[in-house]
Amino acid sequence: MEQVIKIGLLGLGTVGRGVYRILAENRENIRQRVGIGLEIKKIMVRNLDKDRGLSLPEGILTTNIQDITNDPEIKIVVEVLGGIQPALDYVLEALNRGKSVVTANKDMVAEHGQRLFKAAQTNQCDLLFEASVAGGIPIIRTLKQSLAGNRIDEVFGIINGTTNYMLTKMTQEGCDFKDVLQEAQAKGYAEADPTADVGGFDAARKIAILASIAFNTRIPLQQVYTEGITHITPQDILYANELGYIIKLLGIAKNRPEGVEVRVHPTFIPKDHPLAAVGDAFNAVFVRGNAVGDTMFYGRGAGELPTASAVVADIMDAARDIIRNVPGIIGCTCFKQLPVLPVGETLSKYYIRLRVADKPGVLASIALVFGNKEVSLKSVIQKEATGKTAELVLVTHRVQEQNVQDALMDIKQLSSVMEVANVIRVEGEE
């Protein structure tokens, strides 16, 4: 009988079905590449009677986690349930029983990574999570292995497909946020409650994971500055275009001598930057290393088969480690303790849109406030006045965030300033 490594699968939703299909359809190629066969022995689901759209062997489904964690034949547990509980308890139980774990769960890894890696290290087994960030794009393995000889200075990119789809539509068609959100929900790109996506929280979890790996230091999720796209208007997109920029929601991590910047927010990037061309629901991650220079990784950041592709690659790595008796050979790489800089200490350029009274001396008074706070203006455009008001569009040189915020606090007090309509950071320029 052919020797195989047995797998327990937790969850048979979209990604779980993809994992099952890839392992079945590519069975022989996978066996040749790994050197041993891989077989799913048990699948834990909530409802045994639900139609899965798959032809499954009799008896493979269970609702009892112990059927997987207590089975000595099962060497690899694959978690694709999502959410933190009960997934966290199940994964810890598997690790504590010496089983290698593959997960696609960004929430769990971002919030409980330290605890999970400690369990994996203690029990000498693998904890692999390629699919937790950017779907089918092999970015985690790249940072941990292919670019391991580099000092990574920056990691930033488009790591949420929903918001990228929405901003692409707003840019191309001039739609407003509410209409595009409804369309994204109708097409299945956005959830009924879209807060995690449009609020930037999904991207925050992903950039926390990437920054932890890239800079070899643990990034607490609560220290990631997070801002969503709900305040982006067609007017901002129009002005961005006039100034030579595209608006994208970016996760940004920079390794500076003073500490690490980690943030998520809408961003102006130049039209000629590689990320500007990434449209629809695609993801892309830009990495700058001191040896390799600039690299970019592009592909589908979600979906059944792209995400399952990353999961299966991790399963194959875990299987190789088992047959070579070296599970856990690449464990947690957070061997530094770098400070995470408060957002006030981060550096960027800024686009600022003001609604002001249309009268002489307004621009001079605003420029004086910025100057007093050491904010240098790169460009100022006064748009056509409407009645007794006008719109000012300003772009600053690179400056510390706190200086900009302090200046805006004073500007809001000016009688000639009716509204600070929007503030958006500018990145991707030297």
TrEMBL record:
It comes from the Bacteria. Its EC number is 1.1.1.3. It catalyses: L-homoserine + NADP(+) = L-aspartate 4-semialdehyde + NADPH + H(+). L-homoserine binds at E191. It is an enzyme of class 1 (oxidoreductase). The active site is at K206 (proton donor). NADPH binds at K106. Its cofactor is a metal cation. Residues 351-425 form the ACT domain. Keywords: Amino-acid biosynthesis, Metal-binding, Methionine biosynthesis, NAD, NADP, Oxidoreductase, Sodium, Threonine biosynthesis. One of its GO terms (biological process) is threonine biosynthetic process. InterPro entries: ACT-like_dom_sf, ACT_dom, Asp/hSer_DH_NAD-bd, HDH, HDH_cat, HDH_CS, NAD(P)-bd_dom_sf. Pathway: Amino-acid biosynthesis; L-threonine biosynthesis; L-threonine from L-aspartate: step 3/5; Amino-acid biosynthesis; L-methionine biosynthesis via de novo pathway; L-homoserine from L-aspartate: step 3/3. One of its GO terms (molecular function) is NADP binding. Belongs to the homoserine dehydrogenase family. This is Homoserine dehydrogenase. The lineage of its organism: Bacteria, Bacillati, Bacillota, Clostridia, Eubacteriales.
